[in-house]
Every structure is written in structure tokens, then in C-alpha cells.
Amino acid sequence: RSLTDQQISMSPRSFLRIILPFVFTIFFVNQTQALAIADQFRIDRHLGTKTPYWTEFNGTQTPSPDGCGAIPIHFNFLSRHGSRQPTKGDTKQLEQLSKDLIKYGPRFTNTSFSWMSTWKNTYSPAFAGELDHLGEIELYNMSKRFLQRYPDLFTKKYNSVAYPIRTTEVSRTSRSGNAFGYGLWEGTGELGPCNYETFFLYSVAKKNDSLLRFWENCPNFTKVEEDPKTIEQSTLYLKSISDALVTSVKAILGIGSSQDDWQVTIDDVMLLYTACSFDVAISGDTKFCAAFSDRDILQLEYASDLEDYYVRGPGSPVGTNVSCPLLIDFFAVMDKAIASPFAPEEESFMRFAHAETILPFLTYLGVIQDSHGMMWDTPWEEIENRTYRTSLFSPFASNVAFLLYSCENSTKFRVKLLRNEVEMMFPGCDEMYCPYDKLKMIYQEKLKCNYNEICGNFPAVCPQVENLPSKDVHVTVLTVVIVGVTCLISGIVGTFLAMRFYDARQKKAKYGRLELDASDHDL
User: Fold this and answer.
1) Per-residue pLDDT of the chain (523 residues; tens, 9 = 90+)
2) Integer Cα distance of 296 and 30 in angstroms
3) 3-state SS, residue 72
4) CA-to-CA distance for 428 and 411, rounded, in angstroms?
5) Taking phi first (over 0 means left), then psi (-120 to 50 degrees means alpha), and beta for anything else, what does residue 396 get?
6) With CB atoms counted within 10 Å of each terminal CB, which end of the chain scores lower, N or C?
7) Cβ distance 260 to 112 under 8 Å?
8) 68 pairs with which residues across the strands?
């Protein structure tokens, strides 16, 4: 046949399987390029934990060492959910922002922002916190890239034992797992005209999920989170820059100083930044971001990072150590795969959770460190060059992967670390493919952690009898004797009455006069 004939005979299903990944990739790339062209500063990479997903992966990777397979035998994975809609709280505040802009917008002298006078909040409370379509695309495209890099890793016919997927008990993480799984097994099933493959995701109730929501039931973490001193650095920093931020935003929008003009506060500035963040993450729209200078954006990003740094980053030992069950689980999963390296029961283990999961875990791994520390009065040069950036480590759909390799030489197993798809060395290991035994040595102390001790989850301890006054002991013994005698007498009487009742029923049965009681049918 000619090429034209082959193209004509291609089924719609096959055509879609080939073309859809490229369409979504082109969409993602074009959107990113548009943002870069519109603003070389790349606002879309400085929005803290509301930053849309981005990766520095350029298609190159270090070849596996001699004697090791080119394809990992196990894919050990954790991902944050994709871009989401604002929460109910954010949506309510955006409604108020809309009212303020409609009221004061007509007085703005900068005509570039005339649209603000008619702006209405389009984010609905009905979809608060839900995964957005762009979030679906982020996870779908990511899975396609992993599938392209490791095509032999997901070749087994899908079954829930080989490919377990765990999410938190939140819809956006479950839907993120669905989007990722759809990309992996698209067209490999037998359901519908497009051969859809169904797959299983499971979760644990929030109150019991110490693996992916380890902060949920950790009293010591709650104390840290609710302590005003925890966010003191962020509060002091915002206070130090608030006047300059307000002045900058008013100047850019063209807001006058009369009583009839908008009396902008730092809270209003923060809300404009929120609107900027969600518009960029969901639609790539930077119109709200234009209300800020580049320095304004960097300062707001740092203020947000300061809070996370002391709640669940390097500045909070409890906030990071609480993630230890997750590290233990990562190694337990690899130990299980190593037990049967030639045909591992599990070929992957995938988890989908939150920024509150990713950030402490990366810090506990030692991936996130900051030699300078972070304070409200840190010099600007150090702020710009800091290591701890939530925009980098925990954008929407941020992810961590441990890839396990089987080797034929003396080093039987090696592990490679990926962060947001980019390979990097494990802290403390000088090889990209770290020997597994060495890796366990590096983390041996952290793998000995006790979650309940970290969190202060101790059972109530009852006083021992020997510690009580002797008078109380005598009373306790007397009470036991009285209760025992009472139970014995009750047992004798009960037995006697039961025997009399049994004899009576036997006599009735003998003469055919046994009548069924209604209770006999309540079985």
C-alpha cells in the first residue's frame, strides 16, 4: 500500500492515541512560550505553591552504569495534585475584590486596567478546590513523558497488584491519579471504542492517613502550625514591605489619594496576588499580574516561602520529621521489589497528595536545604539566591520518584532520584545511580524514626495499684470481693430459673401445647 492508503485505513482510535499526546504537549508548550514572551521575568515561576507545573527536564539523562539494566525494575512515585480551583475562602475573597474593583475601577487613571471596572469573579464555590482541566493536562502529559522515557516499565497488562495507586481522601488528588493513570494505560483496555482501561485507586480516611496526610493527626505539628511565633518572620517581613507594596500597586493602577479613591491595604495587595496566581495557573492569563513590578512579585513570593519554611520546611524540625512514615514506606516498597527482582510483584507504587506532603518529604530527604537560613531581614542578595523556593520544589503537580535498577555486578541494586522529572544525586551519595545498600546507610537514622513520639501521640497511662495509698487498696479488694459474691449468687439463681423454664417448655411440647412466641421469629 501507499502511505496515503495506510493513513486512510488508520482507525480513529489509533489516530487519537498518536495525535492527542502531541496536541496536549503543543498546548502546554505554546502556553508556556506565550507567558515567556509576554513577560521575560517568567511570572509563572514565582507564584509559590500556586505556581503551575514546570520542569527543567530537557530530555537528557545519565546512562545507567555498566552491568545495570537501562530500564528500572520499579517506579516509586509521589506527586502533588495538579492545578486546582480556588478554595471556598479564596472564592469568597475574590467576590469582595470584584465589588471593590467595580466600585473604584472607573477612577483608575491607567487605562490599561479599565477592564477592572467590569471584572467579575468567575470562580464558583461549587468547584472550590477541585482539580482544573489544566491540572488534568499536567498529570496526563507527565505520565506520557515517563512512558516515553521508560516504555518497558509499564508493559504488563494492568492489574491493581502490579500498579497500586494510593491517593488522599480528597477529590483533586484522586482525579490527579486518574489523569496520570489514563496517560499510562490509554488504549490498552477493552472498554468502549477507544479501548479505555479502568484502574483502581484507593485512599485512607483523613483521620487515619499517617502516610500521605501525616500532619493531620499530629498534635505537636498542630501546636507548631497554630503558634503565632511560627509565622513571625513572614509577618515581620510583610510589615516591612507593606507600605512600599501598596505604593507600587497604586502607582501602577493609577489610584489617586482622595477619600473617594480605593484605600488599598496590604490585604488587598495579597488578594490581587492571589487572583494573579490562579489566573496564571488555570488559564495562563497575566492581566492581574501586571499590577505588580517584578520586585513586587519576588517579595510576595518570599513572604509566602517564609511561612512555609517555618511550618513545614527546614525551619521546623517537627514539620519535616513528621514525614518520616513516607520515607519508611518508600524503602519498604523497594525492599519488596528487591525480594523478587526478576519478576517483582509490584512494578510501581504511585501516590498522589498535596504540597503539605511534598515539602516536608523533600526537606526530610535533605533535598531542600538553605545554608543561610531565612529571616525577615535577610539581605536581598541572599533572598534572590536562596535554595528554599516553593515555586521550584512544590508547584502544582510537583513530584518525586525513586527509580530502582537491577545490576549484575557486586552492587546488585541502585536507585536514581528524580525531582520534577529531573535526575539529581541523593544528598550524601556521590553517584547518580546510588547503590541501594549505601542509600540505606545514608538514611538509616531517619528510617528509625517514631511517628508517635514525634507527634506526641502517647496513650493515657493509668496509675498502678501499688502506687495508691494502702487504704485505697483495701477498699479496692473489698469491692472486688463483694462484686464476686454478687456475681456468684446471680449465676446460681439464673441457672435455677433457666432449668425451671426449660422443664416447663418440655412439658408443653410433650402434650402438643407449645405455642410459638413472636420473638422466636426475630432471627
Assistant:
1) 333 444 434 444 444 444 544 444 444 444 444 444 444 889 999 999 999 999 999 888 999 998 898 889 999 999 999 999 999 999 999 999 999 999 999 999 999 999 999 999 999 999 999 999 999 999 999 999 999 999 888 888 899 999 999 999 999 999 999 999 999 999 999 999 989 999 999 999 999 999 999 999 899 999 999 999 999 999 999 999 999 999 999 999 999 999 999 999 999 999 999 999 999 999 999 999 999 999 999 999 999 999 999 999 999 999 999 999 999 999 999 999 998 766 668 899 999 999 999 999 999 999 998 767 899 999 999 999 999 999 999 999 999 999 999 998 777 899 999 999 999 999 999 999 999 999 999 999 999 999 999 999 876 555 555 554 444 444 455 555 565 656 566 666 566 555 655 555 444 444 443 333 333 333 3
2) 26
3) coil
4) 18
5) beta
6) C
7) no
8) 407
Quote the cell numbers at residue 273. 496576588
Phi-psi region of 284 (alpha: psi -120 to 50; beta: other; left: phi over 0): left
Alpha helices in 227-379 (DSSP H): 232-253, 266-283, 294-312, 317-321, 324-338, 355-365
d(CA 141, CA 382): 35
Cα three-residue angle 368-373-374, rounded to 5 degrees: 100
Name the residue among 305, 332, 306, 354 with its Cα closest to residue 440.
332
| 3-state secondary structure at position 55 | coil
Q: Please count the other Cβ atoms lying within 10 Å of the Cβ belonging to residue 200.
A: 12
Q: Please check whether residue 393 is in contact with residue 362, taking contact to mean a CB–CB distance below 8 angstroms.
A: yes
Residue found by looking up cell 516499565 in the block: 153
Burial 88-98 (b: 16+ CB within 10 A, else e): eebbebbeebb
* Stated pTM of the model: 0.80
Work out the angle between the directed axes of helices 355-365 and 294-312 (0-180°, nearest 10): 70
Read off the amino acid at residue 518.
A
What does R_g of the chain's alpha carbons equal in angstroms? 31
Amino acid at 363: T
**Quick check: 203 and 174 in contact, CB under 8 A?**
yes
Tracing cell 557486586 back to the chain, one arrives at: 410
Calpha distance 495→499 (Å, rounded) = 6
For 290, the 3-state DSSP assignment is helix
Cα separation of 240 and 264, whole Å? 16
**Local structure of 85: helix, strand or coil:** coil
Q: Which helix (H) or strand (E) holds 435?
A: strand 434-435
